[in-house]
Design brief:
Elements lengths: L2 H26 L4 H6 L6 H12 L2 H14 L2 H32 L4 H8 L3 H33 L6 H49 L3 H11 L14 H13 L5 H8 L4 H32 L11 H9 L2 H38 L5 H23 L6 H13 L2 H9 L5 H19 L11 H18 L6 H8 L3
Length: 487
């Protein structure tokens, strides 16, 4: 059997299993919006953790991080993993926990629905939806680009970038539209196990091919020793590190697809358990991701800019046999699909619940589910059109999306933890944060101490939320108690 045939068989089996899981979930899913979009809010610890972790592992980790480590070395681990391992679980508790309780209390299915009710402001809901949409679509693009790059490298161009991107979108549409949240959760268990297990196998297998961990590192010390120390590049200056740490640790809770995952938790114990498991799983994944980039710099010198996004599949193609290459591709597919399905489902639920249902108040439950499935297809076509243009590197596109999400965090946090926060304060926060982010991106606001534009965005959003809230009338107590419960 040819190498290409082995790749096809391994990944065909993986995709078939995914579709079967989607079909089984469809058999268990009713036609109610709560069951289709949230799986009946009954997800236990194992499935919830695999769904949350899988949703957060995208080509940004498997391709973007090795690409950055290729240029900047082992310091990329400290730039990202340490603060993420602690910061993300903390946000699950500070924002995710009260959001889950409030959403269950009022029957909210989407984050937009929850916060529009909390502030008694449809206008805020519309603004929040636009922000979520504007930053989620580019993030979806990075996922599909990652598949296209990996398939093109591992098949030697036999399967072109565009065809691979179209295929992963088609499969994801199929099982997501069939089984909704239950399908995405169940497939995330398979997908999370696939990319985690393969990443660890690839780490030790590639190290073995390079003569062992010591020999692999010695080769880097000889050919690119600067990658084994933190170095003095701008990424490791205090201002850059601090602002990027804020971005990478705060952004995840602002993913609408992450909040919806937390809405689906069965109870508080499940939420606590995933916060405990998250740091360990993150370290197990990020150490190999960084070392792939470092080892790859010695193996494939001279890659420029976004060319380094291909370093992981290049290592796989050189050092592993066809079967493991097939597992590598399945691992990337798993990482992509476990995020893409959540994003498609969440955006389609917001389009249905927060746009279509407001325009047509009498929409039936079955019609809502049907509309959600139609929106899933439409969103996929939009993402595919952008992917074909390949606008920037995976890391750069993800960085843009992450920065935008961070500007929403003050509204998400204060809306649940500070009852004095008003609708006007939330609107001002979102607008001021995004304006400051835009001005800093184009150097209108200075990069003081080397901070990234996201720092200006977060500062402006926080100040606007507090100052405007203090100068505007508070939300009616009845509306607050309905969403947040008694003071």
């Amino acid at each position: 059997m040819s190498d290409l045939a082995v790749l096809a068989v391994v990944n065909g089996a993986y995709l078939l299993i995914t579709l079967v899981i989607g079909w089984l979930a469809w058999r268990r899913t009713s036609s109610t919006p709560e069951d289709y979009f949230l799986g009946g809010r009954s997800t236990r610890t194992l499935v919830l953790f695999m769904a949350v972790f899988g949703t957060n592992v995208t080509p940004f980790v498997l391709l973007g991080i090795p690409g950055q480590a290729y240029h900047h070395g082992v310091g990329i681990f400290g730039l990202n993993a340490a603060i993420v391992g602690l910061g993300i679980p903390l946000t699950f508790w500070l924002i995710g926990h009260p959001a889950r309780l409030a959403a269950r209390r009022i029957g909210a299915i989407t984050p937009v629905e929850l916060y529009a009710e909390r502030f008694a402001s449809p206008a805020l809901g519309h603004l929040l939806f636009l922000a979520f949409f504007a930053y989620t679509v580019p993030y979806m693009v990075t996922a599909v680009m990652g598949v296209g790059l990996t398939v093109a490298v591992l098949t030697g161009g036999a399967v072109p970038f565009a065809l691979a991107a179209a295929l992963v979108l088609a499969i994801t549409i199929a099982y997501t539209a069939l089984g909704g949240m239950r399908a995405t959760m169940w497939t995330n268990v398979l997908q999370g196990a696939t990319f985690m297990v393969f990443t660890l196998i690839a780490f030790f297998a590639i190290a073995g091919e390079l003569g062992g961990l010591q020999a692999a590192t010695a080769a880097v010390a000889e050919r690119a020793p600067q990658l084994l120390v933190k170095g003095d590049s701008p990424q490791f200056s205090p201002g850059y590190w601090t602002s990027w740490a804020l971005a990478i640790s705060l952004t995840v809770i602002a993913f609408p697809h992450m909040l919806v995952r937390l809405f689906a938790a069965r109870d508080t114990a499940a939420l606590k358990n995933i916060a405990r498991l998250y740091p360990l799983a993150l370290v197990l994944l990020w150490v190999p991701a960084v070392m792939f980039g470092v080892w790859g710099a010695a193996e494939f010198p001279g890659l420029v800019g976004r060319e380094s996004d291909s370093i992981f599949p290049l290592l796989i193609a050189r050092h592993l046999g066809p079967a493991l290459q097939g597992m590598a591709l399945a691992g990337v597919l798993a990482a992509v699909m476990s995020t893409l399905d959540a994003q498609l489902l969440t955006l389609s639920s917001m389009l249905t619940r927060d746009v279509l249902r407001r325009a047509r108040p009498g929409l039936s439950a079955a019609a809502e589910v049907a509309a959600g499935r139609a929106f899933t297809l439409a969103l996929s076509l939009l993402v595919f059109a952008i992917v074909l243009r390949r606008p920037a590197s995976i890391f750069d596109i993800a960085g843009f999306a992450f920065s935008g999400y961070v500007t929403l965090v003050p509204t998400l946090l204060l809306g649940l933890r500070w009852r004095r926060c008003t609708a006007a304060g939330a609107v001002a926060s979102i607008l001021a944060g995004n304006l400051a982010l835009l001005l800093a991106t184009f150097d209108v606001l200075p990069a003081v101490f080397g901070v990234l534009p996201v720092a200006w965005g977060l500062l402006a959003a926080s100040l606007a939320a507090v100052l405007v809230s203090l100068r505007t009338p508070p939300t009616a107590p009845a509306a607050l108690e309905r969403v947040l419960g008694p003071a």
